[in-house]
Amino acid sequence: PVPNVALSDGNSIPQIGFGVWQVPDDECFTAVTSALTIGYRSIDTAAIYGNEVGTGRAIAAAGVPRDELFVTTKLWNSADRPWTRDRVLAEFDTSLDRLGLDYVDLYLIHWPRPMREDYRTIWQAFTELQADGRARSIGVSNFQPAQLRTIIADTGVAPVINQIEVHPDFAQAELRAVHKELGIVTEAWSPLGQGRGLLDDPTLTRIALERDRTAAQVVLRWHLQIGNVAIPKSVTPHRIRQNLEIFDFELDAAEIEAIEALDTANRLGGDPATFDVG
Ligand code: A2P
């Protein structure tokens, strides 16, 4: 079983989840079905991924009791303003319909910047969704420290999670320290560095060889040991399985330190300070 991480609202989230970014809707059914069969209990999707329908169909078909699942989706931050309370609630309903669910475990604001100051209105509406139980937990994604502090000051409600890009060569130590101060869990997107060059790094491949693991498993183990929740994505069944087989070994202090030395601030995705949509 996958260990859970406690959230500040009293709920908890499996420390490894299955991410479906860039998985087309028709493939998503197969991928999520594999993940649920292999033992994943947390699935991370988003309205903009276009695969909430496939995700929901796989959830329905798998027959896992709803209360054993943790389903995350995200509000798309169209720059088409203004964002009002009612519009947020309508977007949420549409996501629930597509998923075929009557609640989600976690609802996130996807990116803060395209909505400009409207992210504050959106967060107010999120607190209503949580109060009526349809979003059991509420959080954000790609938020910067000032934005986190603003929504907390506005509402007194802290996001339980900030889902951000983190991998060993983009370790985000400063932002993670802010999260710790504010009681926010760090959830890592692209935790494997998108499976690109990072997994061939000599330090990681050396540790992997010594531990009889893969570089991907070593990276995921690093996430666990620094307290992150991680949502690796794969459409390959043996990798989906491998990415969950990380609870029976531990990196030692020297290995963690060696991995920490890999940080080159190598951002692969959008920069929250500038990320915009038309
Ligand atoms: P694929 O989906 O073809 O299996 P991230 O989660 O950081 O965005 O990384 C996702 C990318 O990493 C995907 O291209 C995925 O490929 C690849 N990947 C996922 N798990 C592994 C693994 N265990 N070993 C190697 N590559 C992996």
Automatic annotation (TrEMBL):
This is Aldo/keto reductase. The keyword NADP applies. It comes from Rhodococcus zopfii. Residues 16-263 form the NADP-dependent oxidoreductase domain. InterPro entries: AKR (IPR020471), Aldo/ket_reductase_CS (IPR018170), NAD(P)_OxRdtase_dom_sf (IPR036812), NADP_OxRdtase_dom (IPR023210). Keywords: NADP, Oxidoreductase. Belongs to the aldo/keto reductase family.
